[in-house]
Specification:
The structure holds 2 protein chains of 2 kinds. Chain A is mainly beta. Chain A is 0% helix and 54% strand. Chain B is mainly β. The chains are: A mainly beta, B mainly beta.
């Protein structure tokens, strides 16, 4: 069984300040983990993914996430928020057990960036 | 963004209508997916096709009928829908849907469906 929990449904930051979006997962196997972003009226776009290589993963637009197995976390961070970062962010987990990998999406975190 | 396209972008239909959603991917992928995105609910996987074979039907009601004629096209046929089926329907594709590590999925912009 697997699950993913996004701890905050809404996060509000000022432009230029750091962003932290939290994600905890549960998986019976070593997981693949992803962060996607969805801007209004758009599909989901991949920000970054973890698949057992380096635990600190760098993605697009200055985002990065750190896989912490001991804490079962995969939090998304960015040093300085831009107005264009305002969107909804989804954490996704998939087990690695062979065969078709069923992905589980979190409920999403809406990021508001205040000018 | 143009790797996966969906048509129509918006659809309004009555409960007795029959309509189809279309998805096309231009990425050379072998797996395609349908998801339902409702307000305040997690994204729900509906169907998965891997090399044109359906590998996942996530307990979806029979009023939703998928079709995958080739690896580049995916359809979702709709009939006698209910108002609670109103949602954003997202299509995605990936290199394939097998192997140990999950492949990255690339999403289309979605079809916003309203059932009256």
């Amino acid at each position: 069984a697997q699950s993913v929990t996004q701890l905050d449904s809404h996060v509000s930051v000022s432009e230029g300040t750091p962003v932290l979006l939290r994600c905890n997962y549960s998986s019976s196997y070593s997981p693949s983990l992803f962060w996607y972003v969805q801007h209004p009226n758009k599909g989901l776009q991949l920000l970054l993914k973890y698949t057992s290589a380096a635990t600190l993963v760098k993605g697009i637009n200055g985002f990065e996430a750190e896989f912490k197995k001991s804490e079962t976390s995969f939090h998304l961070t960015k040093p300085s928020a831009h107005m264009s970062d305002a969107a909804e962010y989804f954490c996704v987990v998939s087990p690695t057990s062979g065969g078709y990998q069923k992905v589980t999406f979190g409920t999403g975190t809406k990021l508001q960036v205040i000018p | 963004e143009t790797g996966v396209t969906q048509t129509p972008r918006h659809l309004v239909m009555g409960m007795t209508n029959k309509k189809s959603l279309k998805c096309e991917q231009h990425l050379g992928h072998n797996a395609m997916y349908w998801y339902k995105q409702s307000a305040k609910k997690p994204l729900e996987l509906m169907f998965v096709y891997n090399f044109k074979e359906q590998t996942e039907n996530n307990s979806v009601p029979s009023r939703f009928s998928p079709e995958c004629p080739n690896s580049s096209h995916l359809f979702l046929h709709l009939h006698t829908l209910q108002p609670e089926d109103s949602a954003l329907y997202l299509c995605a594709s990936s290199q394939d849907a097998s192997g140990r590590w999950a492949k990255t999925q690339y999403f289309g912009p979605g079809t916003r469906l309203l059932v009256l």
